Amino acid sequence: CDQYEDEVQNLVPQLNGKEDKLEDLRKVKTILARAGKEMKLYKQRLEEEKIKNKQLLQNQNQLKQEMQKMQKGMIYNAWQQNGNNQSNSNNKCDINCANSDTHQLHKEVTDLKMALFAANERQEVLQRKYEDRKLRIRAKFLRARQLHNQEKMLMKEQLRHLGEDLLVTRSMFNKEHELREEREASYKKLANERRELLSKNGEQVEIIRELTRSQSRLEVQSKFLEEENKRLQEKLIAVNHRQSLSQRANHNLIYPHQLTSSKSLEFDAIFERPLSHLNKGTLPDMKPSFQTDSSHIRQIELNQTEDEYDI
Fold first, then answer.
1. Rounded distance, CA 104 to CA 93, Å?
2. Which positions ≥6 away from 32 have C-beta within 8 Å?
3. The dihedral formed by the CA atoms of 54, 59, 63 and 69, expressed in degrees to the nearest 10
4. pTM confidence score
5. Do 186 and 306 fall into the same domain?
6. How far apart are CA 115 and CA 122, in angstroms?
7. Is the torsion defined by CA of 33, 35, 36, 40 positive or negative?
8. 137, 168, 190 — which closes off a domain?
9. DSSP type of residue 230
10. 110 and 251 share a domain?
11. Tell me: the pLDDT tens digits for 147-157?
12. What is the pLDDT of residues 78-122, one digit of tens each?
């Protein structure tokens, strides 16, 4: 997108230059329009001069016809004068008048010829100026038309390229917009998933904390129970040891005369058994000692359960 923006910014001065050229062409068009108006004015003047020349020619022809008529009249009058000697004296005044009239007519004809010659010269000068100006304006017009056509072709070509570039940039912008929307949607989706994972992670962290607390609590309880068990086992061993000693003492005091050698050996084995079994954490198989030990163990278990409840 930045590359296409740079290209568009680079094309902006070119477009400004083309606009300046178009302004110059518009100025040339205005100049040509003015020249066309001047040509029309020159044409009108030439037509007016032609009309004046036609009028002068008509007046000249009329004067020539009048001169011819007067010459014919003078010839006829001269013939009449030669034929009629009597009327010569009477017609001298008429001849003088006719001569003066012919002289004036000749003068007017010469003046008209001079005016016609001057008008023709002016017409020729204006015609030459008109032709020269026409040729110059036509050359300028052709050159301006050629330049205008070249600039028009170049502008069309550049506009076509610009249109193609704009289509490409528009498609690129549309693709970028679609990609941006997809990226934003994926970002939103990832953010939602992250929130869900963070919430789940928080729950799992709380669960782990609870488990660690319970584990630490259970470890403390297990350590306490192990210590209590050791203490109770030591007490039990001591109690069993004392009980065995008391039973052995009672046995030696009360029943020495009833025991045979074999039974005395069995009793000795029985009395020796509790210490070995107590070292292993078990009790002897003597009925009276078992009853007393079981009640004592129950009492110990009850105390242990009370201690656990207290914990």
1. 16
2. 137, 140, 141, 144
3. 90
4. 0.32
5. no
6. 10
7. positive
8. 190
9. H
10. no
11. 878 888 888 88
12. 666 555 555 555 555 555 555 566 666 677 767 767 777 777 787
Measured CA to CA, the distance from residue 18 to residue 281 in angstroms comes to 111
Q: What CA–CA distance (Å, rounded) separates 184 from 171?
A: 20
Token pair listed for 199: 């919430």
Question: Would residue 180 count as lying in a domain?
Answer: yes
Q: What residues contact residue 30 under an 8 Å CB cut-off, 6+ apart?
A: none
Q: Does 212 reside within a domain? A: no
26/24 Cα distance (integer angstroms): 5
**Does some domain include residue 209?**
no
- Is 165 part of any domain? yes
- The per-residue b/e assignment along 76-104, b for 16 or more CB within 10 angstroms, e otherwise, is ebeeebeeeeeeeeeeeeeeeebeeeeee
Would you tell me how many other CB atoms lie within 10 Å of the CB of residue 247? 19
Helix (H, G, I), strand (E, B) or coil at 1: coil
Between CA 170 and CA 114 the distance in angstroms is 79
